[in-house]
Amino acid sequence: MFKKEYTLLRIVIVSVFVNMILYHYPFISYIMEHLELSKVSAYITFACVIIALFGVQVLLFHLIALFGVRFFKLFLMITFMANSIALYFVQTYNVILDRAMMGNAFNTRYSEASAYFDPKIFIYIIFLGILPSIIIYKIKIKPSKKIGIFLSGFGMFILSVFILYMNSFTWLWLDKNAKFLGGLAMPWSYSINAIRVELKKSRANEKQLLLPNGKFKNNKKTVVVLVIGESARASQFSLYGYSKDTNPQLEKEDVLVLKNTYSTGTYTTKSVASILSYDGSPSNGYEPLTNYLHRMGAYVEWRANNWGAPKEKIDHFYKAGELKKLCKGEGCNYDEVLITNLNKSILSVKKSKILMVLHTAGSHGPTYFKKYPPSFEHFKPVCKTVDLKECSKKSLFNAYDNTILYTDYFLAKTIDKLKKLHLPVLFLYLSDHGESLGEYNLYLHGTPYAIAPDFQKKIPFIVWESKEFLKLKGFKKPYIRAKKRYGQNDIFSTILDALGFESSIYIKENDLLYR
Question: Could you say which of 3.40.720.10, 3.40.140.10, 3.40.50.720, 3.40.1700.10 is the CATH number of the domain covering 230-363+407-432+453-510?
Answer without folding.
Answer: 3.40.720.10
